[in-house]
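Figure S4 source data
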Amino acid sequence: MSSTKKKTQPTKPKRRSPITRAEGERRLISAATELIQTRPYSDVGVRDIAELADVNHGFVHTWFGSKNDLLLAVVRKQFEELADQVRMAEPGQPALNFYDPRVVSVVRLVLWLDLEGVDTGNLFKDMPILDALTARFISIEKIDPSIARAAAIQAISIGLGAGTFAPILGMESADDAVPIMDLWRHVVGLLSKYPPA
């Protein structure tokens, strides 16, 4: 009998285990969030995101449509997390820290997407942060419900402007924004006592 050696087959790359769409989307959003914290948005590619998420890059297009649509999903997720922060803030304490790196990051991402020509208007139609702040102004600050949403829009505008453009405005740290936010808290107090006619 002759002995024959079995030829060894080259090993194939390990296949990713199947995941659900919900898990894949969660991984892609998480990976994109992580990558945009450390690199310019334009340098973060679909393949980079998919590799970090351990998801086939084709699913970015299948599940989201494009990289920019995935980044819109990142914005929505961060809005939800920030809304939770607003809901959990203690009365008398600021509901949001506009110097929080997550806040600065999401604002800059929205601005970048807008400059890229992405329709960002839908982000603000159903904005959980705005809803949470409006509810807080009504329940905690006792602002008349008819003006609470406008007051929340003003608060977000002031905070985002201060946080986003702090270097241009000469504000070096969160402490530099304290007088601005204290002034706004004073205005909120006045709105609760003297609602506009």
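Figure S5 source data
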Amino acid sequence: MTFEDSLEWARAQDAADELAALRAEFLFPDSGPLYFAGHSLGLQPRRAREYVLQELDDWRRLGVEGHFSARNPWVSYHELLTGATARLVGALPHEVVVMNTLSVNLHLLMVSFYRPRRGKHRLLIEQGAFPSDRYAVASQARFHGFPDGVLESEDPLRTLRERDDIALALIGNVNYLTGRAYDMSALVRAAHEKGALIGFDLAHGAGNLSLTLHEDGADFAAWCNYKYLNAGPGGLGGVFVHERHADTALPRFEGWWGHDKVRRFEMGPRFSPIRGAEAWQLSNPPILQLAALRASMELFDRAGMPALRRKGDRLTAYLELLLRQRGAEILTPPERGSMLTVRFRQPGMLAELKKRGALVDLRPPDIVRITAAPLYNSFEDVQRLCALIGELDDG
């Protein structure tokens, strides 16, 4: 790819961009359009307000009858997201469900998939995993009576190939801090060859990378929807459970929303699970949260992940080139999505950028994360950000 460090060149790329119209579907913050923190919290889709207000209006008009008589009946509202979610992560529709939040879902899934025994009790995570994942796996190991059960590895693939005592691996497919993306299919093969199960935290992968969860064969995965997927602060998460587990008698915590839909309102005493990922549901979901996410998922369906990843690769490469030209140290390896982790020579750079309307993300003490999200960021955004960094550095 050949790039030019000029505003004219960047605008020409945007004029030829097949996804450029999607930018108008988002609301930028009052600080301005230089928003590069979509890895932390995505922007608000324009239609999110409309969809949420529609449900508030139906609640006002219908009260409890909205469960079955709303324009989009609440009892099945989460199913409006099933197809788009499956397409997003490369899954079959019955392998996915939108529910709860990420850490809650990880615990619910580990109840089913972490089944330690003497001699095969280790729970593997990548070194530098997100703290919530580390807390979750450590508490699961302790709960099962293995206080020393967690392994952290700089090279999870090699560790899986070398050890026989791993019961479950839980890997962030894109590391939250470095932006490194792991080879999921290789990790799955290595785990299964050793008789271990494997799941993935896709918090920084869903909506960022092109995923093929069903084909890769992961046992399970979970992710949040408020980063690249623009569900809003604290938005609902997503879950994947591979089809091969749909009919197995896995242990799990049970709730009425995971019960057979046809018989759910019979209020019977015995749990009859829905086939697939929906069986892991506990309670009826928050409709207002689903409505906000629905607005974003429609845009992902409109764009398609292959096209988003093609644009994302070009945007990120352009961002990397311009940052290097301005002396930034790039910490993210070539195996990545849209996020770059960098260090600047000037320690006060982040505060100065914010004063000038550019939002990036600091992780103390000196790590800055920058993401050009292909749904709404442009080549002009990248060029303007880096021109501003150059001005501040020279100053």
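The chain has two domains: 7-45+304-394, 72-302. DSSP finds 13 helices and 15 strands in the chain.
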